[in-house]
Design goal:
- This protein is of the alpha+beta class.
- It has 14 helices and 21 strands.
- The chain has 2 domains: about 240 residues, Roll (Dipeptide-binding Protein, domain 3); about 220 residues, 3-Layer(aba) Sandwich (D-Maltodextrin-Binding Protein, domain 2).
- It is about 25% helix and about 25% strand.
- Strands 13, 14, 15, 16, 17, 18 and 19 form a 7-stranded mixed sheet that branches. A 4-stranded mixed sheet has the order 1-12-11-10, with no helix packed on it.
- A hairpin with a 5-residue loop joins strand 3 and strand 4.
- Helix 2 runs antiparallel to helix 14 and helix 13 packs antiparallel against helix 14.
- The protein is globular and about 75 Å long.
Length: about 525
C-alpha cells in the first residue's frame, strides 16, 4: 500500500482531538484529489450527417417480455413509477450516459468542453428519431425544458441557469456557478420536439426501440434508425404488472424476462434468476439532533461516527445491496479515481470514539432515541446494527420504529436524538441540498460551517480536501452507505446482462432468449 495511506492510518487516532487537527487534516487531504473530468480529451465523431434507415432485420423469433404500469404514463417527463422509468433507456438516449463511477460517456453528444460556468456540447447529428427525422439542437432545448419542469429530472438540472443553441449541432449550458462535473448531470432523455407535451403523449426517441401502443397492446419495436449495435431481439412486449411488488413472482412464472430493482422498499427475496448490480446515488446516513445533550458537541458526533460498523450494516442490514461510505460522496465516484488517499481508515474505530467522548467531558452512559421508518426492513436492521455498535462506547440506543407519517412528524417536531435518513443525490454528486439550512437533513447545528465550505468548494474557491476537512470537523451527520440496485433477469437470457446507473438494459442488444415451449 502506498506511503500516504500508511501515514493516514498512523494518524487516525489523533483525528479531531484538538484544534491542531485542522492543520493535520489539511496536510492529509492535500494529497487526496484533484478535480478532473473523467474524459479530458474531447471525443469527436466521424459519423455521416444524414440518417439512413437500417434494413437489418433481427434474426431471432423470440421476443423479450418486460413489465410496466399501464396506469402510469409512458412519457419520461410525467411517469411516476420506477417500473416505467426503467423503460426509458430502451426508447430514448440522453446526451450522456453514466457508467458505474458516475462518469459521463457519450450518448447523443459527440464532445463537450467546459470553461468557467459555460458547458458547450457538440451533438452527434447523424442520429435520427424512430420516425426518420434527424436529431438536432432544437430537440435538446425542447427536452431540457420538459426535464427541468419534471419531478424526475429537475434536481439533476438544478445547477443550470439557461440553455441555448448556437448551431444545429451545438448546445450551450450556462451554469449557476462553475462546476467541472456538470456534464455528469446531462442524463435526461432526449425526445423529438413537440412529442412530449403532457402525460398522454407517447414521445419519439432515438433509442434502440420505439413505442407501439394501441388499445389492445403496448410493445417496443426495433428502431431501424438507431445507431446502436443491431439487436438480436426485434420486439419487446410490455406486460401490465400490478402491483410492482409482484415482479419477482412474475419473473419466476416466466411472464416477464427481466426487471430492475432499486430495493427502495427495503426488502430482498432470493430469486431463482440471474442478476447484476449497479451503483445508485442514494445516500443513507445517520442524522443527529444537535439540540440533544452531547450531540450539541462535534466531538460526540464524531464519536458516534467512528463507532458505526458500516461494513456490518452493508452486509447484514442491506444484504450487500449497498456500498459503505465514510464520506458524503460515493466512494466509487470518478473524481476520486486518481487519488492515493484511502478514506477507509475513517471507518470503525472504538478507541477514537472513547477518546472523543472523554474530550467532550462525557462521563457515564448516554441514552439516545433513534427513530426509523418501520416500513423499510433494511433501515430497521441498520438501526439495530448501529444500536449494537454504539453500545460498545457507552451509548445506549432506544429504537423507535414509526409509520411514515409518525417518522416525518418526529423529524419536524425535533422529537428524536438520532434517525436513519436517505437522500437521492444528483448523479454529479452535488451535495448542496444536504448542507442547506432548508435542506432535507435535520438536526444540524446552527453553528455548522459545512454549508459555507461547500458553497466555496462548488464555486472553485477551495479544494475538495478543504471541504471534506470541514465536514469531518463539524460532522453534521454520519454517512453510512450508498444503496445498490440490480437487474434481475431470467436464466433463459444470454449473455450475462450488464447495467449502469440509469441504464438498466445497457447490453440488451446482445441478448438472446433460449426458451422452450413458447410459440
Amino acid at each position: 500500500m502506498k506511503s500516504t495511506i500508511k501515514q493516514a492510518k498512523q494518524l487516525k487516532r489523533r483525528l479531531f482531538l484538538s484544534h491542531k487537527t485542522i492543520s493535520i487534516l489539511a496536510l492529509l487531504f492535500a494529497v487526496i484529489m484533484l478535480f478532473s473530468s473523467c474524459d479530458e480529451t474531447v471525443i469527436t465523431t466521424d459519423s455521416p450527417t444524414s440518417p439512413d434507415k437500417n434494413t437489418y432485420i433481427p434474426v431471432s423469433s423470440e421476443h423479450l417480455n418486460i413489465g410496466y404500469s399501464k396506469a402510469d404514463s409512458l412519457n419520461p417527463f410525467f411517469m411516476t413509477t420506477g417500473i416505467n422509468n426503467d423503460l426509458v433507456s430502451l426508447v430514448f438516449e440522453p446526451l450522456f450516459y453514466l457508467d458505474d463511477s458516475f462518469c459521463a460517456r457519450n450518448g447523443l453528444a459527440a464532445s463537450y468542453s467546459v470553461q468557467d460556468n459555460v458547458l458547450t456540447v457538440k451533438l452527434d447529428t447523424s442520429a435520427a428519431f424512430s420516425d426518420g427525422v434527424q436529431f438536432s439542437s432544437t430537440d435538446v432545448l425542447y427536452s431540457y425544458e420538459k426535464a427541468k419542469a419534471s419531478q424526475n429530472y429537475k434536481s439533476e438540472l438544478s445547477g443550470i441557469l439557461s440553455v441555448s443553441a448556437t448551431a444545429a449541432d451545438t448546445v450551450v449550458f450556462t451554469l449557476s456557478s462553475p462546476c467541472i462535473n456538470a456534464v455528469d448531470s446531462l442524463t435526461f432523455p432526449i425526445v423529438k420536439s413537440a412529442t412530449a407535451e403532457n402525460t398522454a403523449y407517447i414521445p419519439i426517441g432515438t433509442g434502440l426501440y420505439s413505442y407501439v401502443v394501441s388499445e389492445t397492446e403496448a410493445r417496443l419495436d426495433y428502431n431501424p434508425y438507431c445507431r446502436k449495435p443491431q439487436p438480436n431481439i426485434a420486439k419487446v412486449k410490455l406486460v401490465p404488472i400490478t402491483p410492482a411488488s409482484t415482479l419477482l413472482h412474475t419473473l419466476e412464472l416466466g411472464t416477464i424476462d427481466a426487471y430492475f430493482d432499486d430495493f427502495s422498499q427495503g426488502s430482498y427475496s432470493q430469486a431463482n434468476a440471474a442478476s447484476t448490480k449497479t451503483n445508485l446515488s442514494n445516500l443513507v446516513f445517520l442524522g443527529m439532533n444537535s439540540n440533544s445533550y452531547g450531540l450539541n458537541s462535534a466531538e460526540v458526533r464524531q464519536a458516534v461516527y467512528f463507532a458505526i460498523n458500516r461494513q456490518a450494516v452493508v452486509k447484514n442490514s442491506f444484504k450487500k445491496y449497498a456500498v459503505a461510505s465514510a464520506v458524503p460522496y460515493h466512494p466509487e465516484w470518478h473524481v476520486l479515481e486518481e487519488s492515493d488517499y484511502d478514506i477507509s481508515f475513517l471507518n470503525l474505530d472504538y478507541s477514537s470514539s472513547q477518546t472523543l467522548l472523554t474530550q467532550a467531558g462525557i462521563a457515564g452512559t448516554l441514552i439516545y432515541n433513534l427513530i426509523v421508518y418501520s416500513g423499510n426492513n433494511f433501515k430497521v436492521a441498520a438501526a439495530k446494527e448501529i444500536q449494537a455498535s454504539l453500545k460498545n462506547i457507552g451509548i445506549n440506543v432506544i429504537i423507535k420504529e414509526l409509520t411514515w407519517d409518525e417518522y416525518n412528524s418526529a423529524l419536524t417536531d425535533n422529537a428524536y436524538d438520532l434517525y436513519i435518513g436517505e437522500i437521492k443525490l444528483p448523479t454529479n454528486m452535488n451535495l448542496s441540498t444536504l448542507f442547506s439550512s432548508s435542506g432535507p437533513v435535520k438536526g444540524v447545528s446552527p453553528a455548522d460551517t459545512t454549508y459555507s465550505a461547500y458553497e466555496e468548494f462548488s464555486a472553485g474557491k477551495i479544494t475538495i480536501d478543504a471541504f471534506t476537512q470541514s465536514f469531518l470537523q463539524n460532522m453534521p451527520f454520519a454517512p453510512i452507505c450508498f444503496r445498490t440496485g440490480a437487474l434481475i433477469y431470467s436464466n433463459d437470457i444470454t449473455p450475462a446482462a450488464d447495467c449502469d446507473t440509469g441504464n438498466a438494459y445497457k447490453n440488451v442488444y446482445e441478448w438472446e432468449i433460449h426458451k422452450t415451449g413458447e410459440s
